[in-house]
Amino acid sequence: MRERVAPLVTRTSYEGGWKVVMVWYADRLQEDAANALLKMLEEPPPRTLFLLVADSDQPLLSTIASRCQRLYAGGGRPPRLAPETRAALLDLLAEGPGAGYVERVAHAARFAARLAAVRAELEKSDPAADGDDDAAREVRDARINARLLEARDEALELAARALRDVLLCRLGRPAAELHWPERADVSRRLAQRVTPGAALRNLRLVEEAHTQMERYLAESQVLESFYLRWEEDAAERNGP
C-alpha cells in the first residue's frame, strides 16, 4: 500500500480532474496496509475518491469505517434504527392518526422527535475531535446526514409496511400475508376504521411524504401534513 498505491495517489490526473482509487478486498488488508490506507484517508490528495470494496465492513478498522460512506450493493443494508426506536414508532403508528387536529399534530411531533433522537445518537457515536479542521468537520457532518437519511427512509418504510398491513386486513387477507403477522390484531383494529379506498390512499401518503422529504421539505411539516391527511372514519372510531 505504501510502496505502490501511495505514490500513485499523489500524482495529478491526466486532465486535471478527479482520481478514483479502488481498493479491492479492503476487509482483508493486513495491519500495515490498513494503517497506510488510513493515513491516505486522513490526508487525502485533492479531488481524489477512494472506493473500498469489501464483503463486510466488520473487519475494517473503525477509524477507516468512520471515514467512509457505506453503499450496499447486495440489495440489503443494516438497520439504522435501534430496536427500541422501531418498536416506539410501531406503537405510535398503532395508535392511528389521532382523534382531532391537536392530537394529530401531537402524534406528528412525536414521530419527528424520534427522528431527532436518531440524529443525536449519530452525533454521539461519531463525535468531532477537538483538532478537526473545517474540512474534517464537513466530512463528518455529511457522513451523519447520510446515515440520518437512511434512518429516515427506514422509518418511512416502517410506516408504509404498517399501513400496507392495514390495507391487507381491510381486504380480508390472512395474517400470514402481513409483514408483521404478530401484530395482526392491531392492523385489524385500524382496518375497521377505514374503507379499502381510504386504506390505499393512506399508504400512498407515505410515498408522498418520502418524495417531499427528498425535496428537502422540513420533516416536521411533512409529518404533520401526513398525520392531518391520514384518513379515518370518525363515526367508526368513536363508536361503541
Compile the SSE list and pairings:
Elements: H1 5-9, E1 19-23, H2 31-42, E2 48-52, H3 62-65, H4 83-94, H5 101-125, H6 134-170, H7 184-191, H8 196-214, H9 219-229, H10 234-237
Parallel strand pairs: 1-2
Helix pairs in contact: 4-5, 4-6, 5-6, 5-9, 6-7, 6-8, 8-9
What would you say this structure looks like, in words?
With 240 residues, the chain is mainly alpha-helical. The protein folds into two domains: 5-65, Rossmann fold, CATH 3.40.50; 83-237, Zinc Finger, Delta Prime, domain 3 (Up-down Bundle), CATH 1.20.272. The protein has ten helices and two strands, in the order H-E-H-E-H-H-H-H-H-H-H-H. The chain has helices at 5-9, 31-42, 62-65, 83-94, 101-125, 134-170, 184-191, 196-214, 219-229, 234-237, and strands spanning 19-23, 48-52. It has a two-stranded parallel sheet. Helix 2 links the parallel strand 1 and strand 2 (48-52). Helix 4 packs across helix 6 (134-170), helix 5 runs antiparallel to helix 9 and helix 6 (134-170) crosses helix 7. The protein starts with a helix and ends with a helix.
